[in-house]
Amino acid sequence: MTAKTERAARAVPRAAARPRRLQLSIQGAAAFPALPSRSTLRRWATLALERDAVIVLRFVGTTEGRRLNREFRGQDHATNVLTFDYMETPVRADIVLCVPVVRTEARSQGKTFRDHLAHLVIHGLLHAQGHDHVSLGQAQRMEARERRLLARLRVADPYA
User: Fold this and answer.
1) Bridge partners of 97?
2) C-alpha pair distances (Å), 95 with each of 63, 119, 138, 146
3) Rounded to the nearest 5 degrees, what angle is found at the Cα of 50, between the Cα atoms of 122 and 25?
4) CA–CA distances in Å: residue 88 to residues 66, 76, 81, 84
5) Does pTM surpass 0.85?
6) Which of 40, 92, 142, 159 has the CB geometry, 3.0–4.6 Å to 54, for a possible disulfide?
């Protein structure tokens, strides 16, 4: 069992758990004035929280997004979201969101920027807590969880 699947196996169901604590830092938001408020970003992150966590949400442009994706994933293009999970307890992770990519994807998929960003914040938080989509079964479970959480925000199914 990998450390990531071990962490997911230890997950306590939300209903049975005490309220989770989130220490949230937001970086780079000043460069993108159209981002939702800090309180909205916190609400989205808290919604996906299954355990106590220390999270950095970092908003970047294409150049930094491309550099990070190339350096850590070997892919020479900017991607929408990267999650750097440090495999600690409490959960500690940096979630990097490339704003221009998120905007372009939202436009091409006929979604609002806000709805797409909410999805990617939740997606990144789930990755930070050990969820993954490498296998078909993992992907189905993770996508179902994303759909349930996004429905609570009145965001349409991002996979429809």
Assistant:
1) 59, 81
2) 16, 13, 20, 16
3) 60
4) 26, 29, 20, 11
5) yes
6) 92
**Cβ-proximal residues to 68 (8 Å cutoff; 6+ apart), any chain:** 60, 82, 96
- Tokens representing residue 109 in the block: 């998929």
Contact 53, 92 (CB under 8 A): yes
In angstroms, the CA 126 to CA 20 distance is 14
Radius of gyration (C-alpha) of the chain in whole angstroms: 15
- How many beta carbons lie within 10 A of that of residue 33, not counting itself? 6
Express each pLDDT in 60-113 by its tens digit.
999 999 999 999 999 999 999 999 999 999 999 999 999 999 999 999 999 999
Q: What's the rounded Cα separation, in Å, for the pair 63 and 66? A: 5
Of 83, 113, 87, 92, the C-alpha closest to 4 is 87
d(CA 7, CA 102): 28
106 sits in the region (left: phi over 0; alpha: psi -120 to 50; else beta) called: alpha
